[in-house]
Amino acid sequence: MSDVAPDEIEDLVTQLKAYNDAYRRGVPLISDPEYDRLVNRLQTLDPLHPFLSKVEPELFEGKKEIRHPVPMLSIEKAYSREALERFISRVKKEAAEIGIQDIRFSVTPKLDGLAGRDDGEIFASRGNGEVGYEISSAFEKGI
Asked: Which of 19, 45, 91, 121 is the most exposed, fewest CB within 10 Å of its CB?
């Protein structure tokens, strides 16, 4: 990162924050692949930048807050078989370190812009990763 102009990183983060805000308001300014390219550029320039590990909060004012038993973090996208295999290897290694041998993965469609946790009684949005919002009624209505 030493040969990268700090202004370039700052400008990139400013752009990404603006695109996030517009996306969360329902008026995306760029496509998902364009956004992903910008995020990948930031990862190249400054892999430890806080923007890359921060979960953006959702806009659910007035809804009941639900604390997640385990933090819900952002997803890491994989664009190749090799990237997916690296992810699986990393999960297996981490699981083995805590004594888990039987690992099963579930693949489900992603509703763009929505992440949640279903505990069998309520459905909660991801929120800021630590605290989400109860959105069970949206799913009862067929979303």
From this structure: 121
Asked whether residue 72 is domain-assigned, the answer is no
Residue 91 lies in a domain: no
Which of 54, 92, 110, 141 does the annotation list as catalytic? 110
The DSSP letter of residue 127 is T
Domain, as residue range, for 10 = 1-54
Q: How many structural domains is the chain composed of?
A: 1
pLDDT in tens, 118-132: 677 778 878 888 888
Q: Which of 112, 40, 35, 117 is nearest to 78 (CA)?
A: 40
Residue 64 annotated as catalytic: no
In whole angstroms, what is the distance from residue 34 CA to residue 55 CA? 19
CATH of the domain at 11: 1.10.287
The four Cα atoms 15, 21, 25, 27 give a dihedral, to 10 degrees, of 0
3-state secondary structure 81-123: HHHHHHHHHHHHHHHHHCCCCCCCCCCCCCCCCCCEEECCCCE
pTM above 0.85, yes or no: no
